[in-house]
């Protein structure tokens, strides 16, 4: 029997075959909705950098989704590569992963979590998920620039 109670979140290499395939699907989907210069997804090499923690969500070994946290400094981190496999959408995968990321952020005593996502309608479910977890729009951060295809969000952490 599968379901939310059986999902397992674990750190995993983003180059694992099924994870890599999901990340490639993520990039391909973004190319449909945004111009190349507005796509800010990280490749496998970048997701393996020491400043990044990468997780997968699996149910009985089957990949459900993934996400990462990029440490920007001692107080800030950015959520990256959040993706639910299409066949597992609306099962609570992203919500479960978001709770996990928020817990890790609290353990690390971060002051803010930041993210960038798209403005096209295809990204509306992501924007709603982030808003439901307390994220609000903010100006661009780090190396990002204003872009009509991007929305920037942050969440203050209670430390």
From TrEMBL:
N-acetyltransferase domain residues: 7-158
A single GO molecular function term of this UniProt record: acyltransferase activity, transferring groups other than amino-acyl groups
EC number: 2.3.1.-
Entry superkingdom: Bacteria
Annotated InterPro entries: Acyl_CoA_acyltransferase, Bact_Acetyltransf, GNAT_dom
EC category: transferase
Keywords, ordered alphabetically: Acyltransferase, Transferase
PANTHER family on file: AMINOALKYLPHOSPHONATE N-ACETYLTRANSFERASE-RELATED-RELATED (PTHR43877), BLL8307 PROTEIN (PTHR43877:SF5)
Descriptive protein name: Putative N-acetyltransferase YsnE
Encoding gene (name): ysnE_2
